[in-house]
Amino acid sequence: MKKRKTAGELSLKAASDSTKYDHLEVANAICDDVVQQLMICAERHKPIFDEEEFCVVMVLANDPLIKGIKRKKFYGFLHLPQPRPEQAVFLYKKKDDSLKRLWCLPNAKVMAVISEQSHVSNQWKTTKGWCDAFFDGFEAVSENGQINFINKNPSVFFDHIRQQHNIKMQSESEYLNANREKLIKAGCQEIQSTSPDAFDFSKISIDKIVDTKTALV
Prior knowledge:
Structural class: alpha+beta
């Protein structure tokens, strides 16, 4: 059996490649197996969720160790998930084994540019609606060089999605707020979350750190 190259090996190869690629060809290559992976994720969550409908989510995330590597993460969610940049959300229906796209958000920079435009071409109008609704409901706050989004009026985005697709699915916070008393009576206790412990970087010795860009394959 042919050995598959690791992400590190592919990253080193990509870094040394000076060829110019068409952006549309790259985008099509990234999307080649998305539907297949979405269905695999949906099948895994069918026995977990009793409900006839649930969300299947895909997010793009940077690899924490290897520069230039984007990873596609898939997971199932019982309610409408919190919107975020580089996220695509699909509604899965068990009765006909179907997927329906609810929204697809680009990266934060593209979202801001699209939302600031007064007019966009036809292929961007749907995306602009999502971006406008997102920024109407969430406020961008810069902390320690990172952009975080704080709930200002999150129902704006979810109301836009529900109206656009004629669905009634609630977000997680909406469901919990609407059923708080029932959940408490059923034995669920409301607890206050605590701040996570920061990682102690002193535990890492310098001789154990490997530069992933120059590591030998």
